[in-house]
């Protein structure tokens, strides 16, 4: 493809992105395709001769797009949002003129420095302490691919530090602490690192968040048992219910156990740190006081598209001591002199895409105020949904207090008096399946201490109040229908004769 | 930013990419900036009010671009190439209309299936065995962020399998095998996983590649010592010299030790598998016969931009058994039924960018023939350079046989008769520093068994023979100057009186 063909294809791609984002709300949020739909539609081998870019682009529209779930659809309320801002797309496009693997300063100085600066900007946007700034040359921020990488890096750094302090402790005595509400990244890190992961149970009455005294009790118990916990992954905004661990209590407790590091996973909720009025509730002061590291995914609620996850650490040397391997072919005077940051020593991998370009475009084009406006709007929309649920206690209930833009709800026990908790779970599972059959709305389910519930989270940029009202209407009507459907055979079940009769007629 | 502002900004970005790629050859390959140049040029905090996208884009040109190393420059011969094809940029742009974290089939069916299909296409392009195809439902391919991730996944899967077979073996007895020439990803995986990494020495006379009998000897020795090697990372195309381990001998040896898995890292050289005439030399038949997994970075020589690294495995269950964690909020009927692939269980992380779009665009727009033409051209260009070195034995020498597009050379011992090997290394180090001062050409250095040398690798799409000739002229003239510079004080040093005289006059 020559430059002019590229220009034409590029303009066309831009036009199609325009068409897509200006019309996505008119399409189903979920695709109606069956497993194998695309494999069956494509040849089994690549073409021998090169094909025209326009044909490929048309196939993208005709074959790929019908199988896409639209995470930026205004009626997407599932999982967590996945940012797809136009500003981010532009930033990523500019990054194409600086394609490089970014493993050290020398291999593209601008890329390293822009990451360095934008991570400080974001730290300030989020109200993080000075300690986490790159400008301190002690702490600092780095862009990771995702929150799993961030947690893994934090765990590896903590393990390395612990083993340096206590070289006599056998590896199999080391323990990672999480709660039952921690994202699966905790368990996965345990699988990958071959370390046991102890998950603290958390209580409904604590809104599924970890308390300091429970932590102390567990540490004492596990230590008495010869175990060596070396890191706790606290969560600010759990996936299931948006629970916020009591970072202040946890941090205060850990003062008595200074060998146990504290990593805070705020992958989703971290974007809300941008609004000063939410910081107290999000435990930002406690994070600033106690956390060794904290992670926020820009690519969830934070307006930057995948992949872009921020990790800030209080002491960069904990990372570099654990991860630095500098082979001869990467040695260079700037790196050796210590005047520059070589980000490969802050991450699991060597190479990395130039991600700070899109972060820079987003932070500048939205500005602090625009960023805050996006977060506040999502929360306001989430509150409308929660309020509607509260207005229908005869049918629905919030299972736990809404957490910012996330509400967790279910069919209320009062809607089906006399049924057991198991039956209620079964009903709610069917209720979710009924919602899940629809293509015009997307929600996900979860379990909270055995209770089957449904999550509703806002955050797509173009969601408006009327989308929430429509979504609630669907949730409400589907609940009523699900209750009816559930109760019918039950009544028959209680009355065998009628069941037989109905079969006969 | 509204849609029309985006369209305008998008067109402008496309135009600037056109300007960039049509003029990059006229600019220095290396930036002339000092550490801190960009940090000092940027404000210390993000703006409060949003800024105009055009201003940001202009700042990108004015502030960022001067600090960028141009990996796609035709005179970039350092590290390994980093693909930045226009086709890939278009593909990545289309992916922006399907922004999603791709962790399972349901969260965007098209993305999972396109990855599934394009990984089969690439396997066929590279001549990999049927066993590695997704269509078998036994083996399969997955896009990883990079080769470090791919190796880590392979190691974790191997460790998990080994520990399932021998649950009584303590973790600290497990050992990862690499060679001294393996990419630092091996050592880094050891650091991250907390496992010892044993690096086999390799011989100059074997062209720095691992032999089967050496492997057998080491296994026997280590086992006798109570160690449990469970995986060997073989390399096809090492970073330092492009060495190719004897995968056939290694594989044959490992038949006697079936508990030791074989992962082949062909991150760079794998792209050459696309040409049937190179497969034998690249040990593709042996990979097909013996390897449990193999990795090729599309984003190096493979025409797809960062991040995009292919990992193929012979048995996908080894991955999913080691890495599957399915929390309730990710459970869905399609995933549970086993009819679809959920790629989160093939990787370290949960979320992932839609990378197969650009792979699809590249494979189709180049076609098999276009892909092969790119590889063959790079190799031809590399051979020109190697030939020029051979033509000047009085000054330069190839340190090892050129490996496809990679030559490793140095100032020849014959150019400085009588100097020790240490002095020769010192001279070559200075020689490299002299080349490294230039901005119009970019090469990197390495050490091979203690010998200081310089790497020259082709692969940028727009390199032409005249770039090679110019590069060689620079290398040659700099060598001559470096030799002169090196010998001058030496001669004086050997003749103290003349040294004094010269000071006096």
TrEMBL record, chains A, B:
Cofactor list: pyridoxal 5'-phosphate
Keyword field: Decarboxylase, Lyase, Pyridoxal phosphate, Transferase
UniProt-listed Pfam families: Pyridoxal_deC (PF00282)
Modified residues (N6-(pyridoxal phosphate)lysine): 300
Molecular function (Gene Ontology), one example: carboxy-lyase activity
Single GO BP term: amino acid metabolic process
A GO CC term assigned to this protein in UniProt: cytoplasm
Family of this protein: Belongs to the group II decarboxylase family.
Protein name: Pyridoxal phosphate-dependent transferase
């Amino acid at each position: 493809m020559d430059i002019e063909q590229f220009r034409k294809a590029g303009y066309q791609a831009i036009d199609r992105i325009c068409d897509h984002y200006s019309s996505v709300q008119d399409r189903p949020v979920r695709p109606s395709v069956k497993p194998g739909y695309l494999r069956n539609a494509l040849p089994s081998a690549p073409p021998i001769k090169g094909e025209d870019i326009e044909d490929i682009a048309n196939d993208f529209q005709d074959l790929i797009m019908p199988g896409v779930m639209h995470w930026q659809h205004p009626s997407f309320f599932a999982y967590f949002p996945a940012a797809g801002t136009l500003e981010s797309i532009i930033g990523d496009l500019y990054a194409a003129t600086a394609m490089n693997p970014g493993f050290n300063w020398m291999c593209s100085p601008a890329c390293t420095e822009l990451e360095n600066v934008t991570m400080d900007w974001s730290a300030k946007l989020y109200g993080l302490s000075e300690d986490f700034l790159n400008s301190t040359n002690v702490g600092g921020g780095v862009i990771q691919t995702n929150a799993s990488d961030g947690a893994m890096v934090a765990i590896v750094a903590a393990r390395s530090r612990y083993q340096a302090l206590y070289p006599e402790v056998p590896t199999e005595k080391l323990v990672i602490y999480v709660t039952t509400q921690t994202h699966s990244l905790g368990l996965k890190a345990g699988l990958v690192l071959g370390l046991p992961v102890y998950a603290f149970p958390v209580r409904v009455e604590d809104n599924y968040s970890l308390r300091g005294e429970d932590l102390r009790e567990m540490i004492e118990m596990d230590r008495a048992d010869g175990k060596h916990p070396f890191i706790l992954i606290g969560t600010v905004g759990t996936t299931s219910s948006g629970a916020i661990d009591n970072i202040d209590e946890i941090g205060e407790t850990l003062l008595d156990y200074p060998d146990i590091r504290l990593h805070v996973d705020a992958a989703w909720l971290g974007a809300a740190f941008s609004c000063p009025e939410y910081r107290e509730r999000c435990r930002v002061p406690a994070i600033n006081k106690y956390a060794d590291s904290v992670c926020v995914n820009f690519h969830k609620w934070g307006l930057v598209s995948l992949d872009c996850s921020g990790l800030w650490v209080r002491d960069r040397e904990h990372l570099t001591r654990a991860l630095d391997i500098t082979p001869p072919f990467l040695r260079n005077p700037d790196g050796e002199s210590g005047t520059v940051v070589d980000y490969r020593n802050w991450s699991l991998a060597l190479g990395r895409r130039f991600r700070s370009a899109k972060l820079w475009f987003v932070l500048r084009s939205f500005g602090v105020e625009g960023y805050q406006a996006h977060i506040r709007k999502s929360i306001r929309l989430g509150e409308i949904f929660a309020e509607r649920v509260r207005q229908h206690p005869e049918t629905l209930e919030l299972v736990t207090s809404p957490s910012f833009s996330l509400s967790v709800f279910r069919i209320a026990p009062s809607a089906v008096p006399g049924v057991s908790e198991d039956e209620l779970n079964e009903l709610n599972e069917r209720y979710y399946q009924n919602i899940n059959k629809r293509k015009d709305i997307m929600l996900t389910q979860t379990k909270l201490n055995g209770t089957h519930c449904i999550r509703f989270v806002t955050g797509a940029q173009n969601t408006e109040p009327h989308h929430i009202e429509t979504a609630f209407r669907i949730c409400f009507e589907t609940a009523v229908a699900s209750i009816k459907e559930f109760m019918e055979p039950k009544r028959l079940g209680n009355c065998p004769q009628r069941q037989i009769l109905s079969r006969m007629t």
